[in-house]
Amino acid sequence: MNLLARSRSWLNSMVKGQRLENEMETEVRFHIESYAADLVRGGFSQEEAMRQARIEFGGIESHKDAMRASVGVRWWGELDSDIRFGLRLLLKNPAFTTVAILTLALGIGANTVIFSVINSVLLRSLPFREPGRLVKVSFDDLGVGRVDTPFSVPEWEDLKSKAGVFEDVAAEWEASVNLTGAKQPERLELLVVSPNYFSLLGATPQKGRLFGPQDFALGFAEAVVISDGLWHRSYGADPTVIGRSVRLDNDLYTIVGILPPSFRNPGRTIATDVEVWATAGFAADPAPKPARNVRIVPAAIARLKPGITLQQAQARLNVMSAQIRKDFASDYPSRSQWTVRILPLQESLVGRVRPILLLLMGAVILVILIASVNIANLLLARASGRQREMSMRLALGASRFRMIRQLLTESVVLSLIAGAVGILTAEVVLHSVTRFVPFQIPRQSEISIDWAVLGFATLVSFLTGLLFGLVPALQSSKADVISALREGARGSGYSVKTHRMRATLIVSEMALTVVLMIGAGLLMRTFWRLLHEDPGFNSANVVVSSIWLPVPNDPKVDPYLGIAHQAPFLRELLRKARTIPGVELAGIASVLPGTLAANSTDLNIEDIPADATQKLSAEIIRVSPDYFKIIQTPLVGGRFFNESDQADALPAAIVDEATARRFWPDRDAVGRRLGLGRYWTVPWLTVVGVIKDIKQDGLDINGVPHIYTSVYQDRGRDLNLVLRTSVAPLLLEAQIRSEVQAVDPGLPVFNIRAMNDVMESSLAQRRFSAELVAVFAAIAVLLASVGIYGLLAYLVKQRSQEIGVRIALGAQRANILKLVLGQGGMLAAVGICVGLILAAVTAPMISTLFYGIHAIDPIIFLTVPLILLVFSLAASYIPARRAADLDPIIALREA
Amino acid sequence: MGKPLDLLQGTLDMLILKAVSLGPLHGYGVLLRIQQISGEQLEIQQGSLYPALYRLEHQGWIASEWGESDNKRKAKFYTLTATGRRQLHSETEKWNRMASLIAAILRTTPEQI
């Protein structure tokens, strides 16, 4: 009721605070003077009348205060004065203020940076129309342990017509493509999509048009859409580029549209980002004739019908796939257990980085907690110095609530200043930080500080202020007036209770530090284990570069169609490469170790019945004869490939030791036979050699079996030129390019780098997260040491009189030293024990991030406490030394 | 005339509204008016009048305006608003009901139970 009048009067008084004061003053004076005048008329003297009037009016200030409260401005007035008082206190102690603000700003800044990454990557929805309904569709052969297998055009039709849960389904095929016609051929990342891809996502062009039904073609349509990046890089943002021809993998296309800068393909990419989109029906050249078992399309995205939940859709798809398996039994071997699976598109993009991001968030939260505890401790120390102020206020009638409010206002002022510093720092460093993040965070370019991040950071600052302010505030407002004033008079002002509180804070700080250190330790140890993992080859002095053989849409003009075309080209390529000065050996591999390839296929072993329930799939890697010699992988049995392993010879295969042991545990693998592919039509491959295990998929992955075939027998388009040389990659680049293009001038050569770098980058994500958490842990150790030092230094100062007496009475200085050190050691020990328990509980929760170690790794769980104990004792030593060196005379005189 | 009575808890607001309902008054005037109608029998601490005035104005029951007092001085005059009038009316009714109820209770003799 009367909200209007109330808010008007409140607003009035807020805006016109000074006017309110003046008016109150005038009104009160008028009252007193009028009354005094009446009294004078009644016979009082002027002076006596004024006195009497004032007495009868009562306490002017307290009435004014009540008047302010009546219009609701007192609360604000108090807040205002508390803030001013807090700021004055901060200015009075510049050392304390600087330390506190820097500590907190560090914590809040770290939280802001990590949260802004999490916000953009995990929380913000994808920049498409109704992103909640977008899903990724995957096909799994669970029976043979393969996920994300390709699918056939009829299966795609089933999704659209039979499933009944999708509004639309778009097929995708990510590929490399060679852009020719410019000075240098360039390799681009291409996404072949069905024409409904853009409309399904709800994308709009920046210029020109995107694909529509008119672009439907059984094979490839001649229209392509390019990214904003490519438009700028290759065409200088020329608006007339629409309608221009472009030659991709020897075929002519027409550019029909340019995407806006914000558009990024929400899916798997080969290396960087999709720059060209082409559209195809996947049903004619270069794709084979569609049939249910010609599974060639690698990926699909779909939009769910409105109102259908993920669970409902998945249930319907399960029914559908069971029905299809039954209806087309010959196309779906029962052992493969073919199924369709959907996953929210966002989840499919970012699911992989979620654990590591959450881990980093956990680490920065620990840092801010530790920082808060440290500040709480400083405030407690300061509070005991303010004991008399507090007692005085209590004695003068301040309410406890009012005092807690004042103290909390002070700490929140501190934390909000620190928050502002932290957020500003985060804003400045954010982009350099995310640029140095070595792993491909999906949506990396979207990372920014938006309102959500600002809100989060402000909230963190505010909560931090409350957190570190609460304990000291409760503590000092509890002061028992009489004893505090008396204690204060004695100059001690440091109660047992306060000490217990500070000790508890130190213990919890130690415990949190242990958790962070153990987390960092486990990650570092995982990384160290991986560095010392035997990769099964020697990456030193190996230079690699990538080549993509184009696939023209018309097979008749394909220069690399079959093995008969590819083998002579490769022989010539290798011959040329060997002529490069400094190159000792040259070889080819379709997939480099340390790079994940999704080229797995069904594996059939002649000696094992096909319907056995074993999950058999393998990754095929095509290599040239010298490859294993170049990477120095030893032969265990049989022989390497040689030049005569060619088209007309017996198909040969090389397996690694693990594969040999697994399938032929009790006999020699050499001479055994295996088949590749779900419906392999090629004849059996005969194992001719066994090599030592190679960590093919990355050092931290024990992958599927690897089967090596000869590039002269098995065709493919992915090539990596592998050279053994001591020359640096940079110096070789021009020569490699010119030798390759001497064989085919249309071939781009890309990703020229040292094999060491390839291995390095396969570990980059682990290195980065381990190092980052280690930095956080180091900060925590520093803070904890400062905390324990601060507490002991304060104690020694407080007890200097007592210590002086002890020394005067003949206490050994060594004993005094031991006493203080023991106190520090005891606090640390208790904190460490609590921390170890906490860490033992939490470490298994992130065990997916470890490799080769147990979550409760004995070495880490033993060394971390030792390191922290050493730091704590070192921090305790300074005050302990000071206590032991105390001159009793000075100490007693000062007291 | 006996010893002045202390104001009953919560009745000051009602008295102020009543005093102001008889014509615009400044703060000191409100005090004089109450004392006048009560026949000097009520003891009001003078200063406590003002927080009450501010509160009533904040609630929109009275309005204020600066004007000139009888002795040509600047003073703040309070007048009753329409909502204030309604409030006074309902308060009065409540008070009367309460007073007669209490009086009836106090009049009760043993025979009536």
Textual characterization of the structure:
- The complex is a heterodimer of chains A (895) and B (113).
- Chain A is α+β, with helices and mostly antiparallel strands and 895 residues long.
- Helix content of chain A is 52%, strand content 16%.
- In chain A, a hairpin with a 5-residue loop joins β3 and β4 (186-193).
- Chain B has four helices and five strands; from the N terminus they run βαβαβαββα.
- In chain B, the strands form two sheets. Chain B has a three-stranded antiparallel β-sheet.
- The A-B interface holds A 2, 4-6, 9-10, 23-24, 26-28, 30-31, 33-35, 37, 56-60, 62-64, 66-67, 69-72 and B 26-28, 31, 45-48, 50-52, 54-55, 57-60, 69, 71, 73-76, 83.
In total, the number of strands of chain A is: 22
Poorly predicted runs of 5 or more residues of chain B: none
Helix content of chain B: 40-55%
Please tell me what the overall shape of chain A is.
elongated
Strand content of chain B: 15-25%
**How would you write the strand order of the largest sheet of chain B?**
2-5-4
Q: pLDDT average of chain A, as an integer?
A: 84
Number of helices of chain A: 27
Roughly how many Å is the radius of gyration of chain A? 38 Å
* SSE arrangement of chain B, N to C: EHEHEHEEH
Mean pLDDT of chain B: 85
By secondary-structure content and strand pairing, the structural class of chain B works out as alpha+beta
**Total count of strands of chain B:** 5
Q: Separation of termini of chain B?
A: 36 Å
Q: Which spans of chain A of ≥5 residues are poorly predicted at pLDDT below 50?
A: 488-493
Largest sheet of chain A: 6 strands, mixed, barrel
Overall, the morphology of chain B is: elongated
What oligomeric assembly is this protein in? Answer: heterodimer
Radius of gyration of chain B: 17 Å
Number of helices of chain B: 4
The secondary structure category of chain A is alpha+beta
